[in-house]
## 1
Amino acid sequence: DAKTTQPPSMDCAEGRAANLPCNHSTISGNEYVYWYRQIHSQGPQYIIHGLKNNETNEMASLIITEDRKSSTLILPHATLRDTAVYYCTPRRDDKIIFGKGTRLHILP
Amino acid sequence: SAVISQKPSRDICQRGTSLTIQCQVDSQVTMMFWYRQQPGQSLTLIATANQGSEATYESGFVIDKFPISRPNLTFSTLTVSNLSPEDSSIYLCSVDGTGMGEQFFGPGTRLTVL
């Protein structure tokens, strides 16, 4: 199984860029990496995904290393509403298996 | 994105009873997923439910304890049987999204077993 490793928690000042790392060194060549976040007491929310190239949408940017062994989710201007648990996960066999994620605290 | 509703939003049940959770989607979807989130933990996939076929259960989950129905492309139910306090969790329904592999999640059902 492609396992992911994320720091258990991170702090970021409001207004600054939040950079969340994820190690997925065992990911297969055709597996996409997906990022979700879960705000307290809500269902997870899809953020972004990628395979090889860097991706950007209205929520975030995703930087994937050339060897695909790690990626970084970037929230360009973090706000208090970005406080959540962020999950990095590959998709295999048409399903998503969640790891422990990173608890991101945005500091005012 | 799909809009997903779950009923009930929360419930308190007695040991030994069962609870059936409903998941309704506002559009037709092929794959539906049921997850469990124990207090302070990440999400654990219970099973995948495709319309017209038996649900596929993950390791550690069995049909007798978590029977699932999938009668059509917009609806599914998960029953948690023979409840014990260890079943106290949030149960979440999820569906495949727009074809890019992303999943959308319902708001969850918070179950407390006394």
## 2
Amino acid sequence: DGGITQSPKYLFRKEGQNVTLSCEQNLNHDAMYWYRQDPGQGLRLIYYSQIVNDFQKGDIAEGYSVSREKKESFPLTVTSAQKNPTAFYLCASSLNLAPGFGEQYFGPGTRLTVT
Amino acid sequence: SQQGEEDPQALSIQEGENATMNCSYKTSINNLQWYRQNSGRGLVHLILIRSNEREKHSGRLRVTLDTSKKSSSLLITASRAADTASYFCATDALGVNRDDKIIFGKGTRLHILP
């Protein structure tokens, strides 16, 4: 089965704790992305990576960190510095079709609740 | 306001009718994409249209792009209950020095009435 997976589906954390969200793809895509979605809102880009060992900040990178050590994996850490971390987090991947961004394949999302 | 903005924010139509959603954007783009999202799920890609294309079809979907007006429309013909979802447009915001961005609008919530 080819696809993109995120785990866990639901995650609960206490304020002040760092938490890492998993994203794995077996589509052999070069590019991977992390988005945040708040209720009734569109997606906002947190970080993206177009190649292993390289990544760029999106519009709302503050309080988040990522790594891209393997092509298949792009984990997102929500740090205690993120002021309002409760949200729905979506990971996506795509072929790197420069110029521009190609068709993105999304995972099922992780709903993070911080109390 | 955002790069991509959908209009209307919400739309309710009877099953069998056509649904039209619009997207406006501000900067030059390489391509524009439309996605569907069912509640609480990830997004599903519908269509990608490049800046040098004016119209594209996929099944019951028709997308148009007018780069002079910086706008796109998504038409769903003969709507079905299963089309109930939120629909988002996504545009490249062309940058320099490897800082291109992809920007999603806030979406149109489509509800198909039985």
